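Closing statement on the zinc ion sub-project.
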Amino acid sequence: MAGLAVNNTPLVPSNITESRIANFMSSKTIFYRMGIHRGLWTLRHSGSPHVEISVYSVPDLKRITFQEAVSQTFQKVTQDERKYGPSWATHWFKIDITIPDAMFGKPVVFQWNMNNEGMVWSTDGVPLQGLTGGDGQERHEYIVTNTGISGNRHSFYIEAACNGMFGVGDGAFVPDPNRYFSIEKADLVVPDKEVQDLYFDLDIIRGIAYNTQDESPRAREAVWVINEVINEFILEDRKSITKCKKLTEDFLSVNNGQAKGQHQITAVGNCHIDTAWLWPYDETKRKIARSWSTQIDLMDRYPNYIFTGSQTQQYEWLSELYPALFEKIKRKEMMGQWEIIGGSWVEHDTNMPSGESLCRQMLLGQRYYQKHFNKRTKIFWLPDSFGYSSQLPQILKQSGCDYFFTQKLSWNNINKFPRSTFWWTGIDGTNILAHLTPAETYGASVTVAELTKCTKNHHDLEYSNESLLCYGHGDGGGGPTPAMLERLNRLKDVDGLPMVKPGSALDFFEGIEKNSRNLQAYNGELYLEFHRGTYTTQALVKYGNRKSEFLIRDVEILSTMATLLSRSTQSDVGTYIYPSNTLEWIWKLLCLNQFHDCLPGSAIGLAYKDVHKHHREIISATLSLRHQAQSAIIRLRSLSENTDTKSQQGLVVFNTLPWNRTEVIAVPRQETDWTGQQHNSDKHEYVLVKNVPGLGAAGYVAHTADIAAVDEEIGAKAYQDDDGGYFILENQNLKATFNHDGQLINLLDKKTPDRQLIPNGAKGNVLQLYEDVPVYWDAWDVEIYHLQKWKPIEGEASIKVVSEGPLKAELHFRQNISDKSSIEQTISLTCLSERLEFDNVVDWHEAHQFLKVEFVWDLVSDHATYEIQYGALRRPTHYNSTIDSAKFEVCGHKFADLSEANYGVALINNCKYGYATHGNTQRLSLLRSPKGPDENADMGQHKFKYAIYPHQGHFNSSDVAQQALEFNVPLSLRYAEDHEVRSGMVLEPLFQVEPSTQIILDTIKLAEDNDNGKILILRLYEAYGAQAHAILKSHLNIKQILISNILEDDTNDKLQRVDNTSSFKLTLKPFQILTLKVKLN
Ligand SMILES: [Zn+2]
């Protein structure tokens, strides 16, 4: 993308540019010396010996003839010697010029200004020309000679009348009989022809900029040209003047009717088919066939017609159900009439899917195109999703996409999005070329109004004079119609309208890449100021998505471990085969259900039957796969070590996070107790497991030192205090005090005892009910005014201690939300935990009510940090501007953090995405109750968890990302017997990142093309926004580690090995996603 640089300066508002240009062109401003006027004339000389002035003043206001005048005696004067008057008097000047050496060979001009009227006479009495001064119609120049010869003398007379053009009056034209005039200018000059030409060019271009149709592409280009001239202009540098002249000449050389100045539109046919929305997936399969077969027919009838189709899932359905039609599409694609586009498995939501999900959308999509069309697409196509994550530029660039297209931000209902063609900059600094069609639709009909809108609405015409028009009826409307194609044919090149041509989206993007200049950049998320309810609506779908994402992660890691173990074990008994096909099926199913009306919650109930079924299938399949992988690991390890076979009871605990963990877990009770210290009501026993290795497993044998009771003194406690009757949870780290409504009225971090986290009189864990009536889009929108109408849920609560400790201390509280709905909460602290956890069961039967939980902290910060895919994003905590206040409800993943410079609190969740932070108040959105398009949305029982994690240091230097992962990825355990169990390390860490403070190793899997299990893929990311250096360690026999990308391509970049070990050096930039391809011997 060389040549298409990012504009490193801000876009200048039109009014400021206009003033800048006026200053540059003017001879009269205080900045005159910086403008062009100073350069119009050069080699200025005045006074003796080059300009000699003598005068004869005619008495009595008489007007005399030339002959009379020259017969008088003239007095020598200097320029400033006296004034000439009074009004109506006449003064004859004799001017004697001696050409200076410097003017040799040049045209010599005499400039004269007395701010009055004059006549130039030759010495033999021929009137030569008039001179005028003042009143904006100055004429000061008299050409002395066209070719100066040094030392040559030239003489002439000036008959000066002491009146201006409009007499000698004041503002009301009343004559002033006593006006006097002085000689302001009597100079010899040489014109600078090139600068004068430039000046006259600019004068015209300025007129086009501000005196033709405002905002026309030509006018916007005119503004750009003058501005560029001012930036380039250095009077003393002739090269700079030549460059300026080239800019103005190029602009003015475009004649009437020539295409260059016209706006260029590329029109591409499409039909946006929502993969499910107001119909279920199965109907979509038929919509695709109906629409796409119609388009094949149109291609036959209109040979120039080009259509683009996205969503590889739709291609796959078509190939399975309508193979003949799929073959036709492949032929049209080869002929260039059908464009494959998008690159992702479906047009998914980009707010809520995890980092790995976004990567897998691209991996599945691009591999599908590669397999069936033998190419990838360079265009990420997402016209209709509800906002765009700021991690997308990096993910797209690492997935073979150079271009991004959407239009959805035109739906903003508060601020107009300020860019059309621009560089979109992600949180890691990656830029991708983006276009938001100024037509503001993906379902255009090719009308004059739409074509005109492309120019009127284009925010970046200074830099790019092109638009993409996406036309065609979507959602089963069948795409473009013959009428649209007929209009397109006629509109190609019509005077008064932009030029429009059929073309592919790739033609368009390659065109702007070639023709644009200095595009502006837009940094960070493309936040949609609309549809903010979609972070919360259909809570079970969000739960299913999050749960599936983490179970798949577990399965891929454990299956990789089992595969490698199986490969290194010389035994047939232990053979384990990586479940590649099942995993691909699971990923496709998960990615399908991240479609932009499914995961956001905006589809009908019938569609959600499928979504829920798919999530159940994923969860059940992954649990089964995880079990199989764990069994294989236990089996292979026990065989390979040939331990003694004494029968004993024990646990094998698996940790798929890449660091060591010590935690309290709930273990199913077997015939005997493990320690017998503490049970819960589900017949589980709490057990403290120490040092479960990261990306490994450890064994714990019952009735040994492996599983020991916890000293009561250092354990967790739940109790009711003596005087106030408040309920308290306490361990070594935290002391939390609750009132009878389950509200947190005090929270003490014992490591920083001076810090009371809740301000006096404020509360946390306050459940709130907001009236939630949007303007129109029920399931989609929560509107800004909902913040004005709400109530806390208080009274009639019951709260009690249910576990006193010492492993885990628990309070239980129950509260009616209304006469129909209720909430039960188990609030807990373990003996070691630094997190205060809230486990919720809600019975929810509301209409247009929004349930949230609120915490008020004793913290001051103008920003909060929210987790997004493989990184975090700062957003304001204030409503300063409408851009800030439009973000009154935002999307976050596992945590939102509010930090001062050295202390903060994170609000962590296990399946929620809606957050708000205002001032020191943090809210997590829990449940909505819209009635359309699914009248039963969210009715029934919900289970979810959230937690509070106070920490020292700002978020940037905390371990919040790790804590949020631990909250979402519980240790998984297997009950084991006999020879299967042993103390200590069962499986040593597969990989270790040291230190693990910033870099998180998220994904481990076999490569898609894995050479019989010998190639692994690792995905790591930097989680806090700072450059990170670490060592990647492994016990595997590694041949080399390539720095790959999301598509798992081979590259020449390798990780550097540390000496001759199997350790490698890692360096990650802020929020970098690093995909490694580990090749084993
Ligand atoms: Zn859509």
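Residues 272, 274, 384, 596 surround zinc ion (CB under 6 Å). With this model delivered, the sub-project is considered complete and its resources will be redirected to Aim 3.
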